[in-house]
Every structure is written in C-alpha cells, then in structure tokens.
Amino acid sequence: MNKIKSGTISILGKPNTGKSTLVNNLTGRKISAVSDKPNTTRNKILGVLNTAVSQILFLDTPGIQVSNKFLNRIMVQSSLQAINESDITLVLIDASKAITNDDYEVISRAKDRSPFIVINKIDLIKKSKILKIVDLLRNKFPFIKDFIPISALENEGLSLLLDELTKILPNYGKIFPDDYFTDQPEKFYLSEIIREKIFNHYYEEVPYNTAVVVEDIKDKKKMTIIQAYVIVKNSHHKQIIIGKNGSMIKKIGTESRVEIEEFLLCPIFLDLRVKIDSKWLLRKDKIFNFSNI
Ligand SMILES: Nc1nc2c(ncn2[C@@H]2O[C@H](COP(=O)(O)OP(=O)(O)OP(=O)(O)O)[C@@H](O)[C@H]2O)c(=O)[nH]1
Ligand SMILES: [Mg+2]
Questions:
Q1: Theoretical Cys-Cys bridge with 123: which of 4, 131, 151, 257, CB 3.0 to 4.6 Å?
Q2: Which amino acid residue places its CA nearest to atom 24 of ligand 1?
Q3: Which ligand neighbours the alpha carbon of 199 most closely?
Q4: Alpha-carbon distance 93 to 13, whole Å?
C-alpha cells in the first residue's frame, strides 16, 4: 500500500496578501491571527492538515518587505528560513492591488524552489486581470512552476490548490499524530487570539508596538483562569490600550474570552492587564519567546 503523502509547504508573500487567512481556511482552524493591517503575523507558524490521503504541513510566515526596523528584519529572516524548510513554496499575490517590487523580491527569493504563484483575492477582481498577472510574472520569472488563482476568504479554488499540491508532495508518511494541529504552544496560541483583537481595534503605531504574553493558565473547579499581559512601550500607549474608563481593554478582553472559550470549550476568566516595558520589542528572545526560530 502507498504511504500517506506528506510534506511541508511554505506560504510566503508581502504583508497583507492573505497568507494567514489561507492557512486558517486550508486547515479549518484559526491557527494564525488575521487583520486588515499589514504585518499582523510576527513568526513562522505551522498548521497541519490531515486528509484521507495526506498530511500537509503549512508554514504561515510574516510578510516580506524591505525595512530597516529591527522587528521587521527578524520577521523577514524567519520567512526566508521557511523556504529552506519546505518541499513546496507558494508565493501569494494580492490580485486586488498593484504588483510591486516587494512582490518581485519575494518571488526572486524563492527562485531555487520553483515556487507556485497563488493569485489571491480573486473575488475582488475581474477574471481578465488574472491573465494579465500571469503574463507579467511568467515573462519576468520563467522559473515559476505554475499559477493558481484563489480566494482564500471565500474558499474559492482551495480544493484545486490542494489537489495540485498533493500530486507533487513526497511520500514521507505521517509525521505527526492526527490530533497535532500546530507547533505553537497553547500559551502562544491564546496570545495570538488576543493580539488579533488588538490589531482589529487600534490604529496607526499602537498595534505594532504591542505584544501579548499569556503568563499563566490555571484550571479551577468551575473555570480556567488565564493571566495575560498586553505589553506596551510607554504610558501614552497604555492609556490608549485601556481606553476611556477601561472601555477598550474591556472590549478586547470580552472578544478574546469568547473566542478562547470556543477553542477550549470551557468557561474561562481572562485576567488581562497592561504593562509598560519600553525595551520589550527590541529583544529577539522575548518577541520569539514561544516560537521556533
Ligand atoms: N476579499 C478578500 N480579502 C481577503 C482574502 N484573503 C485575505 N483577505 C483579507 O486580507 C487581509 C489580510 O489577511 P491576512 O490573512 O491577515 O494577510 P497576511 O498575508 O497573513 O498578512 P501579514 O501577516 O500582515 O503579512 C484581511 O483583512 C483578510 O480578511 C480574499 O481572498 N479576498
Ligand atoms: Mg499573517
């Protein structure tokens, strides 16, 4: 009997192209935070899909862009590493936006892996634009393996994408047990849920200068108590995060609690506090405390 097909597929692209949306919808789980702001994902996150014939390991990665900022440079390094760790590389393009040098940069970086170009957000464009994108990129990058148009948000083209990828996956057999769905420890997973709410409710520089740490999870008789901190750079950001009479932090806490309860399937008490630490975002060991880079 043939072994189960398995392998690692890295998902790259410039910020906001829909990489995390794709990994979440392919695996059927909210593995990675999604927001309408660029640079939501800060580290490489593994999401596992088990089917009757395959076990596919998807690597969601931070958006690649040229930047002088410390945090961004580290994020890009972790994305580039993912290329070397994968059997297949996908580069996501946002079809609803103009193609830019940052897209070209990502495709060039993946040259040795003959990447697939996944043209995302086709729900927002006319079909004729897909052909234009294919023409442009095929001429510029002859090493591209193939083009696959999808809408990650609306689940369009995803089964075709899976079929194409499964065909060429190696036959390694199962790598993980069936109930293993991400490499991120539970604390990190929970902190991403909270961080996503922060990206969805605050503007400009605030979400980018914020981190979330889940410090403690305690099971009590009637509920689970989660102690988490929003770490901010200064007292101004602290005020913004807390909001008038605590209204904003309350909103973040409530939305996060509801989603965490859905995930853990038990009542929780989320003790969410704000802490100032101006050095936090400069420390690689802290930012990636729970990641695998
Ligand atoms: N209309 C439409 N929107 C999409 C699609 N895929 C993703 N989006 C939206 O695009 C935005 C960015 O999605 P993410 O999945 O966070 O993008 P990302 O590439 O992971 O972004 P970074 O982590 O910041 O690099 C969100 O508002 C998504 O809802 C799609 O197929 N169609
Ligand atoms: Mg992302």
A1: 151
A2: 39
A3: 1
A4: 7
